[in-house]
Amino acid sequence: FPSHDKKGRMVIHDCHDLPTLHPNMETQLAAQEKIACTEADYIFVPTDDYIKMINDKYKLWGKNKVLTVLSCPPEIFFPDKDLPRVNGILYCGQVNVPEMKSQLHYRDCLPLFYKFTEYGIPAHLYNTTPTANLMPYTMAGACVYGTMRMFAAIHQYTRYDYGFVGSNIECQEIQICMPNKLFDCIAAGIPVVCLNAKTAGEFAEKLGIGVSIQGMDNLVNVDWNNKDFWEEKRKKVREIRYEYTAEKEVEKAFIVTGK
């Protein structure tokens, strides 16, 4: 949207992700990202880290056009009661399979599911790539479920002991993000385990709704079977979850933009 095409309309760039953070995508999408960030009236980003990166990279300091807007689901998606409990950890989102040539290497999660199986943790994969052959994840020990609408999925998430946020791969794009799966788990009322996701992990630990770990081998140090510990965190999620809704985030955006 070059400025001469805006025709007087406010343009907001919903910068859920920065393509130039991904090593394999920087050249491919750098030009589009620059136009989006420099030409938009406002830029909505998922973390304060993004604000600094965008302002530094595109020299936007002083223009007050970059705003943190969290990726929260709307209140109508929040379950009012739990489905029957199933033990284990929930992974919701896309994963890569060995035959995929994905540029998003942090979705290469097969080693993570082998690690869950090694530690005796039931792992449940709600994959959002309907065409993927997920047999490798089944063989790694995961319970694999089909894609479903978000409203139904968040209700299913209430079954689990904890939700997973992050990646088994250490990379900047995950360390500084606040993924929507974090807020999907909050909406479902379940605590989170954040791996190699520094910003999300600090957020979860500050609120008392989860734990943060760096390095996949350190998953062994999580107190997985301490029922009282996790139920206390589950209780805390239920206390704060309505503070993190799409409605509240949109209201914040309206205040800043005036529209």
How would you describe the overall organization of this protein?
With 259 residues, this protein is of the alpha/beta class. The protein has 10 helices and 9 strands. The strands form 2 sheets. The chain has a 6-stranded parallel sheet with strand order 6-5-4-7-8-9, sandwiched between helices. Strand 8, helix 8 (198-207) and strand 9 (210-213) form a beta-alpha-beta unit. Helix 5 crosses helix 7.
Please describe the structure with a list of short key phrases separated by commas or semicolons.
single chain; 259 residues; alpha/beta; six-stranded parallel sheet; three-stranded parallel sheet; 10 helices; 9 strands; 37% helix; 14% strand; globular
Estimate what percentage of residues fall within beta strands.
5-15%
* Helix content estimate: 25-40%
- What strand line-up does the widest sheet have? 6-5-4-7-8-9
Radius of gyration: 19 Å
Query: Which geometry do the CA atoms define?
Result: globular
Treating each run of at least 4 consecutive H or I residues as one helix, how many helices?
Answer: 10
The overall pLDDT average reads: 87
Secondary structure: number of strands: 9
Oligomer class: single chain
Strand count, sense and barrel status of the largest sheet are: 6 strands, parallel
List segments where confidence is low: pLDDT < 50 over at least 5 consecutive residues. none
Q: Summarize the helix and strand pattern as letters.
A: EHEHEEHEHEHEHHEHEHH
First and last CA, distance:
20 Å
Secondary structure category: alpha/beta
